[in-house]
Structures are given as C-alpha cells and as structure tokens.
Write a structure and sequence with these properties.
This is PHLD phospholipase. With 107 residues, this protein is mainly β. It is 0% helix and 37% strand.
Length: 107
C-alpha cells in the first residue's frame, strides 16, 4: 500500500468475530497516474496473532480525484450495536464542480 497510507485510521470489529480490526485510509492511491482515486484497506485482527499482514478487504473508488479514505470513522450507523465503517471522500467529482461523499459499510 502507498498513497498516504495510514493518514486516516479506524478501529472496529468489521467482520464481527469479537477481535478488533483496523481500517486504514490511503487517499492518494493513484498519484503515480495523477488519478488520486484513493483506497481503504481493512486488516482483520486475529486473537493472539494481531493483524493480518495483508489487507483482507480493499475498497477503491472508480473516479479520478476521489481521494477515498481521506477520513474514516467507526460508528454505529444502522443502530444494531456494532460499529460500522464510515468513509469520507471530500473531492469526489459530481455533476458539477468537485463534491465529496460519505459512505457507510455495515459490519
């Protein structure tokens, strides 16, 4: 991973196995191609062994200048008592000038 990897972090139990997982933002992924699409990498935790050495889940954006992963938050969005992953993208292109978006991934 590269692209400002680790500039945003969130700890949550994304796969609901009772062990904390780590979500890491890398909003400048694609900078070598001047696309800056960004990415979020989720590393599952394992009891007694820590985090996976490679990301278990990679979330990417299809749009240039998306900067996905600029901000991350662990919050219970759907009200089920479990933290969900909230991902911010402040520079996502829209129907006009650049506009951002927020996406929640339920755990």
């Amino acid at each position: 991973p590269s692209g400002r990897f680790g500039s945003a972090l969130a700890v949550l139990d994304f796969n609901e196995d009772g062990v904390p997982d780590l979500a890491t933002g890398a909003p400048s992924v694609g900078s070598q191609f001047l696309t800056y699409k960004g990415a979020v990498y989720v590393y599952f935790g394992t009891e007694g062994r820590g985090l996976a050495p490679q990301p278990n889940i990679t979330i990417t954006c299809q749009y240039s200048y998306c900067n996905l992963g600029w901000s991350l938050l662990a919050a219970d969005v759907d009200g089920n008592g479990n933290a969900d992953l909230v991902v911010g993208s402040p520079y996502a292109p829209g129907g006009g000038k650049q506009r951002g978006f927020v996406v929640a991934f339920y755990s």
